[in-house]
Amino acid sequence: xxxxxxxxxGEINPDLILTGDDIDPVYGQVEKLVESAxxxxxxxxxxxxxxxARLGLRTAFIGxxxxxxFGRFMLEAMQDRGIDTxxxxxDPAVKTGMSVILARxxxxxxxxxxxxxxxELGSVHIDTTFFSRVRHLHVGGYFLLDQLRPALxxxxxxxxxxxxxxxxxxxxxxxxxxxxxxxxxxCDLFLPNEMEARHISGQANLPAAxxxxxxxxxxxxxxxxxxxxxxxxxxxxxxxxxPAVEVVDTVGAGDSFDAGFIYGFLNHWPLERTLRLALACxxxxxxxxxxxxxxxxxEEAKKWLKE
Length: 307
What we know:
- The protein is an alpha/beta fold.
- It has a single domain, classed as Ribokinase (UDP-N-acetylmuramoyl-L-alanine:D-glutamate ligase), CATH 3.40.1190.20.
- It contains eight helices and 14 strands.
- The longest helix is centred in the last third of the chain and has 14 residues, at 253-266.
């Protein structure tokens, strides 16, 4: 019996979400009024961990924050959500990062991120003996983890030797380089969206991207936005539409998808049922502002599986 079902390694930062119809900033000291402002749990990796804990997975996290109000806010909020943060590092020499999200009604958004402590997380902050205590290791925000990124292939190899299965969600590459090195060779599960899959594979369309990626990664779970998602395992492809919900905010929907898929993956569910759970988690998470407030419990998500 392992101590944890899931260990997430990744970025930690809060989100400041500003919502309004006319949200585009205008320079020249032009002031605009927004309809709402919310400070909430941010970062793709933490939102994913919250979704997993909400589903009942025993979840731990490794990340780096500063000794400041944003870092304390995040660690306390993560603990309130049932995430074990004992392995997180607080470093007074760095500042915790932050994202400002300009959100329009209907789900479209722009994101401004101050990296802060995010790229400073390194292998020195990670005790690999922790890996033997978990069933699964997931890394998110890959392209933001500048210090850690070169060490991740070896960390994944060590994890697989110690027992945990592994998964990766790179998220978007703001630099547009899309180099993932050799890490995919040590992934059991890869969770990109369609554009990320195409960029990383170097292919012009999704079918070609899937064919290229599945040669390295056994299982691919791809987020398709309003079209739902698909899973590819070997020669088998399953694609499904999402449940119909009234969308308030799409922040973190892909991360909640990841949490649902990993739940099914760890419990050895069939591909279609696992994908249905992932889509239910992703879609239901959009019912409220921010990435975490509408994340479903397992029982709530299962109701949508029946539908």
